[in-house]
Amino acid sequence: MATGSGMMLLPLFKALGRVNSLHVGLRNCRRTGLGAYCFTTRQYSNGPQKLESSVNGSTTAMAHLTKIENGQKIEPTFSKQEMDNRLATLRDYMQTNGVEGVLFTSYHNINYYSDFLYLSMGRPYGLAVTMDKVTTISALVDWGHPWRRAHICDNVVYTDWHKDNFWRAVAQELAPSRGKVACEFDTMSIDNMNKFKLAVPDRDIVDIAEPIMMKRIKKSDEEIALIKSIAAISDVGGAAIVEAMDEGVPEYVVRDYAIDKMNDEIARKHPNSEFRDTWAWWQTGPVNTDGAHNPVTTRRLQKGDICIMNLFPIVSGYYAALERTAFLDHVPDEHLRLWNINCEIHRKGIQLIKAGVKCQDIALELNEIFAKYNLLETRSFGYGHSIGTLTHYYGREAALELREDVETVLEPNMCITMEPMIVMPVGQPGEGGYREHNIHIVTETGNEDITGFPFGPEHLVVKK
């Protein structure tokens, strides 16, 4: 059966010019909670290696797992030394805490430790780390792309042809180790946790999400260089917004123009980039500016409108942002007063970001300024958050947020935003939302502001 099923695939690979012969041999057998199964190795010369499993001694007609090496390796985002340092820090934690295997399932941690940003589309992905091996676990739908990004790790591909093949790959990579295994509790559903327990039976499973987050919040020099580059790209997006905004122009048209300009700049500064996830919001008028993450609409810009620009260029899963309040043609008096107050708090917040200061203390001091103007209840979220491998659907580092409940002490090489926002409800003087946003690298003596785009009424009352 094994040889026969291989021969079924052989003509296809021959037609692709990738295989001339077929060899079959036993790789290993293992019993886990998923059942006793064996992996047999199929070596296609001049092509990818195929791994097929036999469950309970009966070989299946189609492969559970495979290896695909297709094309040339993609230029990595970071140096090998940088990635080795990350793994060394992880393994130090593992050794200190008696953890012999880790399964990462989040976008951000898989990207952080492997330079591979997956696209789920309903399928699970993983990164298995032991003391001597690192392996990305990817779906066959991605074919050779995960391997092309795997510079410091191996890659195993699971197929759709049998249920829970992902967990068979997890078992293959982690079941041989002994001792505790770890995963990210914040991205592991109850259903998947039960499958994980079957894949690594009789093992203590501990959480690694929070301790690893605490290690990610301090950025390396290479990370900071990348973040600075991306922040400059967001400034290009801001200039594009100003260029495109005009009376009668719909929100989505302005947004799309800014995204195109940022992508052009990404291509210029990072020519080996894979384009993914860069986005923008351009919210106008008293209603659509009330939420920081409100979607772009077909609303057409009018003179005197309050507007908020949000630019988010993404390079290799790393994020920067620029957010600004703007008005077209003129600013009504009460809007100008509120805008100036928010800018005052923004400037004060920038001054407060320095090593040795608690996140919560910055929030509490800025609250006092809002309270002085009787505007404390108009705040809509915290004053800032981390920057790094994150975007709107992954990577938020909750330990580095400028909120009243966060006790983290700022340290050099932390990267954090300052972004106060207030909202006045429709029908009240000054109706609409106001927001400014800069990015800061914490230093020994203060912070480095890496956002170059100006803010405030003296710069962003745009006349056309």
Q: Which tags fit this structure?
A:
34% helix; 464 residues; disordered N terminus; 4-stranded mixed sheet; single chain; 11-stranded mixed sheet
Instruction: Provide the structure class.
Output: alpha+beta
Average residue-wise pLDDT? 89
What spatial form do the alpha-carbon principal axes imply?
A: globular
Helix content: 25-40%
Major sheet: size, sense and barrel closure? 11 strands, mixed
How many strands? 22
Beta percentage is 15-25%
Termini separation: 74 Å
- Radius of gyration from CA coordinates: 26 Å
Total helical segments: 13
Which residues sit in consecutive blocks of at least 5 with pLDDT less than 50? 1-31, 35-60
Descriptive account of the structure:
With 464 residues, this protein is α+β, with helices and mostly antiparallel strands. Helix content is 34%, strand content 23%. The protein contains 13 helices and 22 strands. It has helices spanning 2-15, 80-96, 107-114, 145-149, 165-174, 190-199, 209-216, 221-244, 251-269, 285-288, 333-352, 359-372, 457-460; strands spanning 22-32, 35-44, 49-55, 58-59, 65-66, 99-104, 126-130, 134-139, 154-158, 180-183, 205-207, 279-284, 306-312, 314-315, 318-319, 322-328, 415-418, 421-424, 432-435, 438-442, 447-449, 461-462. The strands form 5 sheets. Strands 1, 2, 3, 4, 5, 6, 7, 8, 9, 10 and 11 form an 11-stranded mixed beta sheet that branches. A 4-stranded mixed beta sheet has the order 12-13-16-22. Strands 17-20-21 form a 3-stranded antiparallel beta sheet. A hairpin with a 7-residue loop joins strand 18 (421-424) and strand 19. Helix 11 runs antiparallel to helix 12. The longest helix is centred in the middle third of the chain and has 24 residues, at 221-244. It is globular and about 70 Å long. The N and C termini lie far apart (74 Å). Residues 1-31 and 35-60 have low confidence and may be disordered.
